[in-house]
Amino acid sequence: MKGSLRKRNQYWYIIVETKDESGNRKQKWINTKCEKKTDAEKFLRETLTKIDNNSFVQPQRKLKFTEFMLNWLNNVIKSEVEETTWEGYEMIVTKHIIPYFISKNDILLQELQPMHLQKYYETKYQDDPSTGKKGLSAKTLRRHHANIRSALKFALRMNLILFNPADRIVLPKQEKFNASYYTVEQLEKLFEVCLGTPIESAVYLAAHYGLRRSEVLGLKWDCIDFEEKTISIKEVRVKYGKEVVVKKPKSESSQRILPLMEKLEDYLLHLKKQRKKNKQLYCKDYVDSGLVCCWPDGSPMKTEYLNHKFKDILAKNELPHIRFHDLRHSTASYLIKHGVSLKEIQVWLGHSTISITANTYTHIDMETKKDTAQKINELFSKKAKEATQ
Q1: Are 144 and 191 in the same domain?
Q2: What value, to the nearest 5°, has the Cα angle with vertex 272 and ends 270 and 276?
Q3: What is the pLDDT, as a whole number, of residue 32?
Q4: Domain count of the fold of the chain
Q5: pLDDT given at position 51
């Protein structure tokens, strides 16, 4: 590319010819901020080389990193992700990233270096002795990093920065997650103590099918086909701020059709009869939400209530503390211990990749491998004994 110099007031300017999207030629003026022509000529040669290498960053007004992150959050990524996903991004950016960097003199985007981000992760990871507040987990920090890296990737694409500093940092090592789960005996006791409570159906479905909480609370009667004997997981209910949003599951693999178990068919038919009685009982006050897991008057059950009631039932009946989501893990652990393959479990649970299934249930899968190792050991021990006789 060719360019020329022209002085305007006290500074020399570079003039280069470019083409717009329609192919029309237009001039671009770049302020060298050089008063001497020799300095401007050197700047011209360096600039033309960067333009040819597609590494030139157009000088512009000073843009703070926090200002850029807020703009990326509200004007770039908001239209690309689901509302509930964006809500998570907003919390990370506005509650963590922006306050931290404002407290550190609000560095300019163009001056942001890997060491600045490295210090951010290290600070957030550490406990705060002055307040007693625990640091964020390595898993949580990886979500922060994903946001920062994505935003800076956009800045790089827009020629606002020369490289992505987020590509050069070292994150804390993520702790291995060990899922909690109940034995069959503990689940049977749980079913017994949940009988007659508002969350009975939610617990029953989650434990038998390994459903997510959002899937249980979003399951509707029209998703249960008693003729074909199937249950379709095609809607979830999730909290978005103070509102509840009904939407499709996050991934295609989560949208799945499962066979209707005989035991569950009898249970659901019983629930359906009770629903009909409740309609007559509440008359015009009945809320026809179409949800399987709901209050007797048909109104939806809130996530907070389900969590609180579940925790309360465990405590009152001296059952080990687990999260409601751990009923899903209990289903998976039972399947693994009974020889069901990880691929089959992936499909059943609706994981997007088999690596998620494998990483989540490695500790349980190891028990199965130990059984296999014992059988191999017994086999070869027997052969060795026969050979010596």
Answers
A1: no
A2: 120
A3: 78
A4: 3
A5: 66
Highest-confidence segment of 31-35, 131-135, 347-351: 347-351
Is 133 within the bounds of a domain? Answer: yes
Examine the domain organization and report whether 95 and 16 are in the same domain. Answer: no
Q: Which domain holds residue 85?
A: 65-168
Distance between first and last Cα of the chain: 88
CATH number for the domain harbouring residue 233: 1.10.443.10
Cβ atoms within 10 Å, residue 307: 15
Statement to judge: residues 287 and 193 lie in one domain = yes
| pLDDT of res. 166 | 95
316 and 201 assigned to the same domain: yes
Amino acid in the structure at residue 275 = R
pLDDT at 131 over 80: no
> Is the pLDDT score of 65 beyond 70?
yes
CATH number at residue 130: 1.10.150.130
**Does the predicted model carry a pTM greater than 0.70?**
no
Q: Are residues 92 and 126 in the same domain?
A: yes
Cα separation, 358 vs 348, in Å, equals: 14
**Which of 109, 136, 168 lies at the terminal end of a domain, its last residue?**
168
Is residue 339's pLDDT more than 70? yes
Q: Which residue has the higher pLDDT, 258 or 34?
A: 258
Q: Say if residue 89's pLDDT is above 60.
A: yes
Among 18-22, 84-88, 105-109, 287-291, the minimum mean pLDDT is found in 18-22
Q: Is residue 88 part of a domain?
A: yes
**Assigned token pair, 24:** 């029309």
